Each structure stands twice: as C-alpha cells, then as structure tokens.
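Anyone? Bumping this.
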Amino acid sequence: MNKKRKRHKLRKDSRSCYVVMALLSILCILPLVLVLSTSLTDEVYIKQHGYALFPVEPSLSTYAFLLNNKGRMLIKAFGLTLLVTIIGTLYSVTITTCYAYAVTQDKSVFRFARPLSFFAWFTTIFSGGVLPWYILCTQYYGLKNNIFALFVPYGMTVMHMFILRGNFREVPAELIEAAKLDGASHAQIFTKVSIPLARAGITTISLFSVLRYWNDFYLPKWLITDSDYTTMQKLLYDMLTSTMELLKDASLMSSISAEAIPTETAKMAVAVMVIVPVVLMYPFGLKYFVKGINLGGVKG
Amino acid sequence: MKKKSLWQEIRKNYFFYLLALPGLIFLIMFNYTPIAGIYLAFEKYTFEGGLFGSEFVGLHNFRILFARIDDVIRATRNTLVLNMGEILFGTVLNVAVAIILSEINNERYRKITQTFVLFPHFLSWIVIGTVSDALLDDDAGLINQIIQLFGGEAVAWSMNAKYWWAIIIIVSIWKNFGYQSIVYYATVTGFDPGLYEAAEIDGASRLRRVWSITLPLLTPTIIIMLLLSIGNIMRGSLEQIMGMTKLSPFILETTDTITTYVYRIGMAGGNFGNASAVSLYQSIFGCVFVLGANMIVKKIDPDYALF
C-alpha cells in the first residue's frame, strides 16, 4: 500500500489520460442517455426528426400510454422477472456454495473433493450442445412454460463455484482446527466459521447471479412460448421484433404514423424499466464486481 | 495409512456428500445427460421416440450437413471473424485503458470513470439491441443523422450485410472493455514502483516508461488472456446476435454464427438431427481449441492454466 502511494506522488499527472477516460466514460453513458431521452420524447417528433440525444419537449406521455394500455402486462412481466431473480439467486447460490465447500475439503476428509472439482470443470470445456439440453428440459424434466423453466437450468455456474472455492481456501486452517477442538460438527463449522469468512465471495456471486437472472433472455427464448411467462427481456425483445414486422409492411406503416401510437418511444421506455434496477444496484455491487472479475480472471 | 471402506467413510463424513449432492445432480441432469444426448446427431428424432429412442440413422445427419456445407462454412467464418475481431481490437483497447487508468493519480477521478466504462457490461444484449436500434435506424437513427449533418448520405444499415462484422465487433468491445481492462489494471498496479522511479530519475518520458517498462512486464498477462479467449473462439452468444440483429434475413450473410445457425435450423426449422450434427462439430472443435490454448498457457505460466 505504502509503496503504491509513493509511486503516485512521484509521477506527474498526464492531462491527456484524464481526457481520454472522460471521453470513454461519455461514450459508455451516451447511448443510455439516448434511450432515456427517447422515452421522454413525443413519438411524432421522432417520426419527423429522428432520435434525439436530448428530449426537446420532455413528457411522460409514453409512460402514461404504456401504463394505461399495457399496465397489467408490464407489471406482470416486471413482477415475474423480479420473482425469478430472487428465487433463482437463492437457488443457484445455495447449490453453488454447498458444492464449492465440499470440493474445498482435503481428500482425507472428503475423498471425492478432487474428482468432483474435475467433474464440474469438465463441463466448461465440453458440452453436448443446446439441442439435447432443450429436448431434456422440455420433454423429460417438464421445464416448459412454467416458472421453474426460468431458473432451474441455471443451478450452478462453474466459474462462480471456482471463485467460491478460492474464497473457502483462504479461510485460515487454524480457525477450523480451533472450532473442531471446541467440539463443533462439520455442519457448524460450515455455517458458523466458513460461510461468514467467505461472505465477500458469496456476495459477489450473488450479485452476478442477480444480474444473470434479471438480464436473461436465453431461458425464456428456448423454454417459454406462453405469453403468461413473459419476462422483461422477452417483452423488450418482442417489442423490438414486432415493430420490425410492422415496418416491413409498408401499408401498415402509414396508418401507424398517422395515429402516432408510441412504438419507438415505447420500446425505449420498456428498456428504461429494464435498466433502472441495474442502475440502482450498481453502486452497491461495484466493489464486489471488481473483486469477482479479478478472481475469475485467474484460476479459481 | 489404513484405507477405510467407502461405506464407512460416507457414514462418517456424510455431511460433505450431502452438500455436494444437489450440485452433482444438477451437473448430471443439465450437463452430462445432454452430453449423452449427442446421440441425437445420429438419429432421426421424433417426439414419440424421444432423445434416446428415435430411429438410428448413422451418419445420415452429417451427410445432409455436407449437402449444406456452404451454410456451415459461412457460419464458421462469421463465428471466427467476429471472435477474432473482438479479441484483437478489444485487447488493444483493454490494455490501453488499463495503462491510462494506472497513469491517473487522482483516485476519485479514476474510480468514477472506471464506474462509467464498466457499466455497459451489466446490460443485457436485448437492451443493447434497443440502443443500437436508436443509433442505427435507417431513417431516424442518430448515426445517420450525424452522417447527414456532415453532408453525407444516410446508410441503409439494416439492408447491408457488409457493415455488420464491424458493428457487432465494435458494440461487443464497447460492452466489455471496461470489464476486461480490470484484470490488466490489477496487474499493472502490482508492478514494482522502484522501476518507474529509476526511469524517472534517468529522465525517461511517460511514453518511454510505458513502452519500456509497463508493456514488457504486461506481455505475459496479455499472451495468457489472448490464449484463453482464443480457446473460446468457436463459441458465440445467441443473445448477442439476436439482440443486435433479431436474426434479420437481410444481414444473415455476415451475422449468422454457428450458434444462431443451430438455433435457426433446429428450433425454428425443426430439424433437430441436422442441427445437432452442426452442434457436435462446434463442441468438438471448441474443445480442441480450449485444450490447445490451455496447453500453451500451462507452458508459459502454470498459475494461469485452467487445469
């Protein structure tokens, strides 16, 4: 720590580095500004002048239109996605934590620790492909058009398991020995010593898991055909593609622009509803994301 | 050491067996049974017959695959081009951003800008597809507005396949550079400050220090990260292409990857056997690339090897 600080003092600042990072930051945020301001612009304006980076006459009319006409659908999709995110994260994190703790054990305690590590790792280099998986899920496991289809297939992410294994390995052996001498059982050591000490890793994979479920389009695309189980991502995708269908048909296009139904702005408004929760959890999760990325970059 | 019988050991340490069990069942159900399900590539799948009971047809599916070899080659080409483009140009930007960040002394400024550039990584491909719609719309898109502002002609992005390699590569890099530069940044901050002090005393310029100290020290990490990405070169994200292109037929020429091809002929076209044959080809070559890349990484630095 000390050394680093000294180095920072010695080296002078370069103004160009500050400018480049400022430009890159703007480049990363500007497209999102575009989405937000489009959602606040009038549809007719977009049809006439195109997308605008800043709303000319900001109004909430698109949001009002959506809530009045599609309110039920939106709330349902939002609620379902939120529910899946919560249940799914609990489910994945539990399975992953337990498995990671088991494979962290020395082979004198748990003989299959290393083989099970390999068993999990092997799935990252070879897969049977998506089609056998799809047939198994829909035809044999009953994971089609129900809420389970939206989280059960994401039980364990092997990379997360290895991040956690790394965390459990850092728990000092002396602490575990001490707990053993005090007569603690395996289960007590797991819940009272190891889990609290690996809290940072568990938080990290929980946050990754939350984002994964919230942003997921893969499971709804493959396993959901019933509109009762439309998640936010699926809803947004359906809006993107169905307006494309409309645009292909020139005769319909004219009638729509006449009525000024907010199609373009509605897409952006739904996108805003998808992004806002991510923005809200982002500052809280940032510290853990950086940690998790560094752990994931190196061998777990 | 006396070896206990398995049963005795299970009874004594049943706790760990219980802990591993849900994960084990999950992996068997969702990873290993599908591997056994590769059998699909050798049968004429029917719903009634199921995954393991449909009519065995040998290499028939592969013969059909060769009949459509042009599509498979196109999908392979697109997969390789998109991945290579992202890896090569992305790495340059990732390393540059890491070095620039390390040159910023104001910790708050550094943290804030890092927060901004990391953000797109956490957006879904569908959201990014929405953003790119607003940017690349043929009539109303922001990019065409800018082109016209400078007197150019609006480009029909959605109809011209030739632009889409570049579009997808640029957007992927945009999404991921904040995230990927973190690993390089962490490495750069770990370098011995004494080297930089000595260079400073010798009057080396900033660029000189980056060129002669930072880059050489960073090279092993760069090579390793490159190899690890090359291991994944046969893979591709369905969500990425669907989000960006919605599988629009006008631009399939450059955007149809192996992953989307399998989806299109399997899921949309209903031809499971044929799609599964393509999928098997992807799995096998993917595995070869991962193992090959890992073998080289292991030679350079065993710490980074996956196994």
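Late reply, but here is one note on the structure posted above: The mean pLDDT of chain B is 91.
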